[in-house]
Write a structure and sequence with these properties.
Strand order of the largest sheet: 1-2
Oligomer: single chain
Helix content: over 70%
Order of helices and strands: HHHHHHHHHHHEE
Strand content: under 5%
Largest sheet: 2 strands, antiparallel
Distance between the termini: 40 Å
Radius of gyration: 26 Å
Number of domains: 1
Number of helices: 11
Number of strands: 2
Structural class: mainly alpha
Shape: globular
Length: about 300
């Protein structure tokens, strides 16, 4: 599927996004608000269920371990493993639900951009493409899990090394030189993690607009988003930074301001998406052929 490269202009995308939604701003605001409330409610419900299951399993294995040998003591780690598995499954569900809502919002933006009316029910149209959103959620959750495990592994290795090299003096005080080096390593790791997160966000920013606009599977949407993202990586990184600053600025207004900025952020992403993937209607100009002529008489 063809796409354009080097066409992202963050300021222009924000401006064009506002132009798309300004006539129906409050409808899009209601969409983002309902989606946020639904995702938070689902997170709280699933989180509570996960905690209850984990608590029950921990109690059961705790009682068993008290009446068992050393092997039984090792079983105390099983609840933590089960909790991690349940947490990953819960994360997939939440990302799937939020992805379906994002898909619905981008469907509404596509309709508005094409000259149609804004329909609040479009918010739920993304659930018709729930399976692609589920595939995206699984891929994103696995990626997050791998990054987390790698980060924890590096953190543990750095911590063990720091304590092994004498971060504390014999008097129990911090060794300034070693602590400074340890802090510098942690800061460097955080910066690397932040850079990776921004790049990944730039490469996957078009996943849900693609699902909303194209008849593609979740895997195909991810691959197409990554390809188009690489072709526009500089502009997309600047766009993400600009949207992040806008969201942060809104959050400074007692956090409520972020809700009012959210529709503009989605519209700006959609504007960028349309720059990279122009609508077929933009270049489609059909004119019926002239009727045939027979001699000096027009045909029928």
């Amino acid at each position: 599927m063809e796409f354009r490269s080097g066409v992202i202009s963050p300021g222009e995308n924000v401006s064009e996004g506002w132009e798309i939604i300004k006539d129906d701003y409050w409808t899009f605001f209601a969409m983002t608000l309902v989606a946020l409330i639904a995702v938070i409610a689902a997170s709280l419900i699933l989180g509570t269920i996960t905690n209850l299951i984990t608590f029950g399993i921990t109690k059961a294995f705790g009682i068993a371990a008290q009446n068992s040998d050393t092997a039984g003591k090792f079983a105390l780690f099983i609840p933590q493993l089960i909790s991690s598995i349940i947490g990953t499954f819960t994360n997939v569900i939440i990302i799937t639900i939020s992805g379906a809502f994002y898909t619905g919002i981008y469907t509404a933006l596509s309709r508005k951009f094409s000259g149609g009316g804004t329909d609040f029910s479009d918010l739920f149209s993304g659930f018709q493409k729930l399976f692609p959103c589920f595939i995206v959620a699984v891929v994103m959750s696995v990626f997050q899990f791998v990054i987390t495990v790698i980060g924890l592994g590096i953190g543990v290795a750095v911590g063990v090394t720091a304590f092994g090299t004498g971060i504390f003096t014999s008097e129990g005080q911090l060794n300034p030189a070693i602590f400074g080096s340890f802090f510098a390593i942690i800061a460097a790791l955080f910066i690397v993690y932040l850079i990776i997160s921004i790049i990944v966000a730039a490469l996957t920013i078009f996943v849900y607009p693609i699902i909303a606009d194209k008849n593609l599977s979740g895997g195909e949407a991810i691959l197409l988003s990554i390809k188009s993202g690489f072709a526009n990586i500089g502009g997309l990184i600047l766009l993400i930074l600009l949207l992040g600053l806008m969201s942060f600025g809104g959050a400074l207004l007692c956090l409520v301001g972020a809700l009012f900025v959210a529709p503009i952020l989605a519209a700006a992403v959609f504007s960028a998406f349309r720059k990279v993937f122009p609508s077929t209607n933009e270049s489609y100009n059909y004119e019926p052929p002239s009727p045939p002529t027979f001699g000096n008489q027009s045909g029928y």
